[in-house]
Amino acid sequence: xxxxxxxxxxxxxxxxxxxxxxxxxxxxxxxxxxxxxxxxxxxxxxxxxxxxxxxxxxxxxxxxxxxxxxxxxxxxxxxxxxxxxxxxxxxxxxxxxxxxxxxxxxxxxxxxxxxxxxxxxxxxxxxxxxxxxxxxxxxxxxxxxxxxxxxxxxxxxxxxxxxxxxxxxxxxxxxxxxxxxxxxxxxxxxxxxxxxxxxxxxxxxxxxxxxxxxxxxxxxxxxxxxxxxxxxxxxxxxxxxxxxxxxxxxxxxxxxxxxxxxxxxxxxxxxxxxxxxxxxxxxxxxxxxxxxxxxxxxxxxxxxxxxxxxxxxxxxxxxxxxxxxxxxxxxxxxxxxxxxxxxxxxxxxxxxxxxxxxxxxxxxxxxxxxxxxxxxxxxxxxxxxxxxxxxxxxxxxxxxxxxxxxxxxxxxxxxxxxxxxxxxxxxxxxxxxxxxxxxxxxxxxxxxxxxxxxxxxxxxxxxxxxxxxxxxxxxxxxxxxxxxxxxxxxxxxxxxxxxxxxxxxxxxxxxxxxxxxxxxxxxxxxxxxxxxxxxxxxxxxxxxxxxx
Length: 548
Ligand code: TEU
Hints:
Blueprint: E1 11-15, H1 31-36, H2 38-44, E2 48-51, H3 79-91, E3 95-100, H4 110-118, E4 130-131, E5 154-156, E6 162-164, H5 179-194, E7 199-202, H6 219-224, H7 239-251, E8 258-261, H8 270-274, H9 294-311, E9 316-318, H10 327-330, H11 350-354, H12 364-379, E10 384-388, H13 409-413, H14 457-461, H15 467-481, E11 488-490, E12 497-502, E13 506-511, E14 517-518, E15 523-527, E16 535-536, E17 540-545
Parallel strand pairs: 1-2, 1-10, 2-3, 3-7, 7-8, 9-10
Antiparallel strand pairs: 4-6, 5-6, 11-12, 12-13, 13-17, 14-16, 15-17
Helix pairs in contact: 5-7
Bound molecules: 1-O-alpha-D-glucopyranosyl-D-fructose.
1-O-alpha-D-glucopyranosyl-D-fructose binds near residues 64, 101, 167, 203 and 323.
């Protein structure tokens, strides 16, 4: 049965449209491809899908450079295809969440083209953040800021002015103090809500509003400023004026449309985004940076349940997404070094990627085993769980993509430092052999390795112990057992073993260590690896039905 407020404890499956399924054989996944796989999603048992951008785009940042927010990229389909996909998903009982990218447009967006043509001081330029440069002829950028992808954050245009781009050069930042900008996004939210979309994932939700003084601070000064809501560019209090307006739009629909913030902010400020007056829910990315470690997992769960309660929202759990090294791979590598604040000093797995997947050695078997255990731990928690396409197959990151075939701007903007995010975006293997392992008849826009066939849906379909069937079983059980958002920690007598119970006698035990652990009495509903008699081996999660 559907719980009220479906999003609170939903399993949301992230589809990266270009890499899911390719119906027209051009090597790029498309909306008709996704539609052809709705039966797969239904059998998997997900409550919703979140689709990364499928709008017209030059693909400078994999579609996060949007040229038109109210259309479909012709390579991915048409608006009719979008309608048909939404209808097919709804028919299968699956909700639809789409990605909104409001911090920046593509430089191919009609607005930016107009801004270039209209020149300095024009109303068209006032939709973006243009400034004159410094130095004699304004030849130096207005400030020394660096973009998130590396390299300078200011780019010069033909007439000599500069524009701000916090991400790729092809992603000019919008000026959210401009009423036209605000009105246009409301139009976009209504456009898709009217088409039946159930919710929105808001890209870099913490950076929209900016208050840049005449005399710009340096990057070092920016970095030193407190993030207390008054920072000139990050996590400003006034961004919630935008979301309060959006919330009124969402609530004008029945049922109200949902939203989840991608906000990289201090935990103490997460409730601002997650409150019912703002977006309603916010991602918690702590698990993306955690080791497979009981202490870290326990602290993250406790902290985030408390944060969600503080805002009346529910939390989210994310082990993998399209921006990070897949967790089956992260858990097969040595733990990353951590700085004083406990954060990994570099993107986890990046060293390994830079070496082309050779150094340090990857223990893929251990990585997958831990990934299965971690996923089953997370799927037992209250809150909504995000599953990134391919993790239900236990896919590893692809490290050895030749440079000539790489697409991600982080790779090109940070040469030698960041290998980019292509390795988790390689198209899904549906069949054990054949053209692009069943992705499509026309090859694959990123090369798939040979070993993909053995991890394909076809190869796992009939194996009861496969990762795919483990996820299917987990999602089926979750629907059966899940009620209110309650969790009670159980004493295990060991630091490396976590156990909690949920209402309905649903008990989850994870052994993060190496030594087998004792299990509470109960009926085994699911195990992420074979049990050793009545003992729980290392790197294994079990779900039990216990009395009471
Ligand atoms: O990501 C925002 C973000 O700040 C990071 O996760 C970013 O991907 C990382 O620093 C790069 O190494 C969102 C999207 O998830 C990402 O795919 C987009 O590239 C980005 O916004 C820009 O739209």
